[in-house]
Structure formats: structure tokens, C-alpha cells
Amino acid sequence: MRRRFGLAIRRYAQVFVYALVATAVLTFVAASATAQTKVDLELVLAVDVSLSMDLDEQRLQREGYVAAFRDPEIHKAITSGPHARIAVTYIEWAGTTSQAVVVPWTILDSPAAAEAFASKLEQLPITRARFTSISSALSFSRDLFASSGAAGIRRVIDVSGDGPNNAGFPVQPVRDEVVAAGIVINGLPIMLKAPTSSMFDIPDLDQYYAACVIGGTGSFLVPVRDLAEFKLAIRRKLLLEISGIASPARIIPVQNTQDDGFDCLIGEKLWRGFYFPERGPN
Length: 282
Hints:
The protein has 10 helices and 5 strands; from the N terminus they run αβααββααβαβαααα.
């Protein structure tokens, strides 16, 4: 009799402990969800630092972002949404294993916060690396949202680059996976060099970005064709992304150019033709 009573007590004790553990887990999950800061936008700025870009061009690109986050119109856009704040991180990317977080996730909720973000970015060195893996940059950027500490109304990856994908996985299926996860991809194709300056350049990089890189509801790209346009293009793109308002001026909406038969493997074919010339570019 005593043995049965003891077994019953132990069973009740086990059930009680399991219930306590389950309650603690649910409380932790609920607390974690509550701890996420509600923001209007979670934004990954994914910036190309491949060797195909001159260091002067990369400096100008960095200066464009620094200037943008010091701009009063950007400050106004940041605080104009329902939550009056956004979360931003700035990364640099090149080849398949060359992605680095330069400025980690930061909540911007005031001109002072945006100024601090700009100052931090301004002080950090620019890295450089070989190859152009847009697909790896998109995958890396997508995974960063899990650690943002924020819950955004919108999630956006803003990717810049001066050439097509030539390393890692093909970009189009990765783009589709990212968009399927509810993330919008916007683009800043950098078209400063004449297409004949390198066998790896393509003359219609903006069309490549439209067909193969950007995607999601309201996605757009802003091409840069002249050094004088660099800072203005970055500012305009950030204003559109932060405000969530699209503009037709110098914007190519993805809906107008996607799925038009563009060869999204052109970058890989150019590299294959370079390393294996006997096989040709196909």
C-alpha cells in the first residue's frame, strides 16, 4: 500500500514538474515575442565591395549612405510611419564566402540615432574581395532578419552591385526563395563603366537586376550611370524604401521587366568562357 502511494506521489510530482517546465517555456516564448521592437521597416543594406569596383567608387558609395542618414528628409521619413522607427543593418559582400556585417542591427527612431548610425559607418574601413555572388549576399541578408530583434511591418533587402552573379548558386532561384519568405528585394545597379572595359561587364545590368535580382510587391531599382548621380540615387532609393511610397522617376518597377527572357546565368557563362575558353561562353 505504501509503495503504491509512493509511486502515485512520484507520478504527480513528475506531472507537476513537466507542467512547470511547459509554463516556463511558454512564458519565455511569449516574453521573447513581446521583447521584439515593433518597427515600420527592417532594412538590410547589402553593398557590393567586389574588386570590379574601383576603391574610389566604393568610397563614393559609402559616402552616399553616410550622407543619406544625415539628411533631414531621411530623418523625417524614418519617424513618419505608424511606429516612428525602423531597424537597419549595413553589410558588405563579394564572393560566396565574403559577407560581413559592418554595422549591426540598429533601431533608428530620431535624427540623433540616424546621425549616430552615419558616424559609425563613416569611421569603419571598406573591405574588398573577389567575385560577385549576389545569390550568397541575398541568402546571408535573409538570414539576418532572424537576429534583428525587431518586428517590422515590412522587410526589405537593398542590394547594390556593378555586375551579374558569377559565383555561388544561380541568383534567380535564391531570389524567388527570399521573396517567398515575404521579403522585398530592391536594387541599385551600378553602371559607371563602359561595357567594353571588362569581358565580365554587361551593357544592360539594370535589365539583369530587374529580371533576375529584385522581387516582391513594390520592388524597384534605381540605376547609377554617372558618378555625379551616386549620392542622389542612394538618397532617393532610401527615401522610397523607408517611406514605402514608389515613384516613377528613374525607377524601373520589376513588374514591367521581369520574365522577359533575360538570361539570368549570363555572369556564370562569362566566367566559364574566361576559365575554359575552348568551351565558349555557353
